Amino acid sequence: MKPDYSLYLVTDRMHMSTRTLGEAVEQAAAGGCTVVQLREKEIPALDFYMLASEVKKITDRYGIPLIINDRIDIALAVGAAGVHIGQKDIPADIARKVIGQDMLLGVSVGSAAEAVNAVEDGADYLGVGAMFPTVTKPDAGYVSMEELGKIRQMVDIPIVVIGGINRENAMLFQPMGIDGLAVVSAVIAESDIKKSASILRSLFSGKEAIGEL
């Protein structure tokens, strides 16, 4: 069964409103997040493994895929659904050889050329951004709506957009043929994570949650 990418949560413990990451992921999943990417850049491998094992129990309970950012070893160790890599990580074609054909491979891209290369290297889906300014990656390069349109025309695999996605712009992308919103602070930093996730998913699908906006 193909994943539903419509509301793709990327974790960030520096910007979450809950005491633990497990609580944040639980609330996001309850609110309708359809994929969880565990992103940890600065913790030891053992801590990452333990955290990934904890989060996977939650995603398994909700029947949604767990994607591990960058760390193929952690993804394999916990039996995650897939791994997501950036342009400065291990090359996508090498990552595909390591993880095999049964795990999902997501690749971050910022141009049509990078998108085409990622597909040729075996990507299952693309993360495109940053679309707007974002506190979680203030140094990220921006992707124009025009370039996003080119990427959509050039590739036929699922695309999720990331970078500054929130309630004000969530409805812009589904009419462009984009498959999902990758969100960080717009869900995980909110005081009501479950409600925020529900509203964003409704906005993206064009079914605004009456009384919640």
What would you note in describing this structure?
This protein has about 210 residues and is of the alpha/beta class. The protein has one domain: Alpha-Beta Barrel (TIM Barrel), CATH 3.20.20. It has 8 helices and 8 strands; from the N terminus they run βαβαβαβαβαβαββαα. The protein has an 8-stranded parallel barrel, surrounded by 6 helices.
Blueprint of the fold:
Blueprint: E1 7-10, H1 21-31, E2 35-38, H2 45-62, E3 66-69, H3 72-78, E4 82-85, H4 92-99, E5 104-109, H5 112-120, E6 125-129, H6 145-154, E7 159-162, E8 180-183, H7 185-188, H8 193-205
Parallel strand pairs: 1-2, 1-8, 2-3, 3-4, 4-5, 5-6, 6-7, 7-8
Provide the domain count.
1
Name of the CATH class: Alpha Beta
What is the molecular shape?
Answer: globular
- Uncertain segments are 209-213
Mean pLDDT: 94
- Order of strands, main sheet, comes to 1-2-3-4-5-6-7-8
Strand content bin: 15-25%
Helical proportion, percent range? 25-40%
β-strand number: 8
Classify the secondary structure makeup into a structural class: alpha/beta
Roughly how many Å apart are the termini? 32 Å
Q: Quick one: biggest sheet? A: 8 strands, parallel, barrel
Fourth-level CATH superfamily:
Aldolase class I
The number of helical runs is 8
Radius of gyration: 16 Å
At CATH level 2, the architecture is Alpha-Beta Barrel
